[in-house]
Amino acid sequence: MKYPAVLSFADIYPELDSFDTIIDARSEGEFALDHIPGAINCPVLNDEERIRVGTLYKQVGAFEAKKLGAPLVAHNIARHIDTLFADKPRDWKPLVYCWRGGNRSGAMAHILARIGWPVVQLDGGYKAYRAYVSAALEQPPAVDFRVICGTTGSGKSRLLETLDAAGAQVLDLERLAAHRGSVLGHLPDEPQPSQKMFESRIWNKLRHFDPARPVFVESESKKVGNLRVPDAVMERMRASPCIALTLSRPNRVRLLMEDYQHFARNAEALNGQLEHLVQLHGRVKIDAWHAMARAGDMPALVDQLLVEHYDPAYLRSIDRNFVQYDKARVLELADIAPEDFANAAQALMAA
Q: How many CB atoms lie within 10 A of CB 161?
């Protein structure tokens, strides 16, 4: 084969995991929004340089823009080779892509090929990859979902984490979305990814699952924070067999106090989130909850939130949205110690 080889994503996909390195030649801003899973960012033009070249292209013309861009591209590619690729062996096999047109990835792929590496360039760039993912999520693989249902604080996320650590197949949508899936679900130190990156993460998990084995997933709503679960994935989850995870309310309060320590320590942050519930519960109720938070009466507040907000919302939605819930296998947790979740995971994996 002559290198650089320029191939479509459909041709590349069967060999995607065989590349030694996937190189995203776009700017750091483009990369942050979404990229092929596992790619590293090696900008041929960084954000500031891309703006300079693009502005010159629009205001003056292509020739002047290319004259400005060429030395920047050459310098950046040289730096990437010196700092990242100089020690790669002759059979190192990279995949390179940029946005769409191939100018940035083409420049890098040409130089890597001239050195002697068997480099592949993605024809159509990120846009071609994105189109492939969008189409794939409209018809996701026929995985055997097992939906873990349960009221807020019953330990669904901890059970998924335990199952994952034990070697089960798990699609943890909340982890992929960096959100715990409720009005209090925002993670303080981790922003949510873009919608496109969320979909890339889901696609990447789905493509690696063994269809002969079950995939455990939580009974999410259509949105996880600001992100939307792809419709076809959601439809398949809602039609799947369910597991009803149960835990006593005092233990649910304990678990939530552990998982939401950032709110337990910061009453004003919690109260800011509770403001989103004014339309549902009224000003008087929210003000009372604010006062409990400021007084440090967090366990009692959590208990009230479960009884008056979370549990009624769950009971209204679960039967309507998960059609096999009435036949759900009941799995009761005695406590919230690691061994309780380990025993529950083993019971599910042995079924």
A: 16
**Amino acid letter at 278?**
V
DSSP string, 115-161: HT---EEETTHHHHHHHHHHHHHHS----EEEEEE--TTSSHHHHHH
pLDDT for residue 139 is more than 90: yes
Residue 132 has pLDDT above 90, yes or no: yes
Beta bridge partners of 23: 40, 96
What pLDDT score was predicted for residue 268? 87
What are 67-71's contacts with CB under 8 Å, separation 24+? 69/45
d(CA 113, CA 98): 16
**CA 105 to the chain's CA centroid:** 26
Whether 236 has a pLDDT exceeding 90, the answer reads: yes
Cα 158 to Cα 148, 262, 295: the distances in Å are 11, 18, 29
Chain position carrying tokens 């949508």: 173
* Contact call for residues 251 and 335 (beta carbons, < 8 A): yes
Residue 197 CA, chain-centre distance (Å), reads 6
User: H or E stretch including 246?
Assistant: strand 242-246
Give me the mean pLDDT over the 24-51 stretch.
Answer: 98
Q: Which residues contact 229 (CB under 8 A, 6 or more apart)?
A: 173, 202, 220, 222, 223, 237
Give me the phi and psi of 40, to 5 degrees please: -110, 150
Active site residue 42: no
- Beta strands 144-149 and 94-97: pairing type? unpaired
Strand, coil or helix: 162: helix
DSSP letters, 174-243, are: HHHHTB-SSTT-B-TT-PPPPHHHHHHHHHHHHHH--TTSEEEEE---SEETTEE--HHHHHHHHTS-EE
Report the C-alpha gap between 303 and 256 in whole angstroms: 10
d(CA 266, CA 288): 17
Q: What integer pLDDT is reported at residue 276 of this predicted model?
A: 87
Q: How many helices (H) and strands (E) does the chain have?
A: 17, 12
b/e string for 197-229 if b means 16 or more Cβ within 10 A?
bbbbbbbebbeebeeeebbbbbbbeeebbebeb
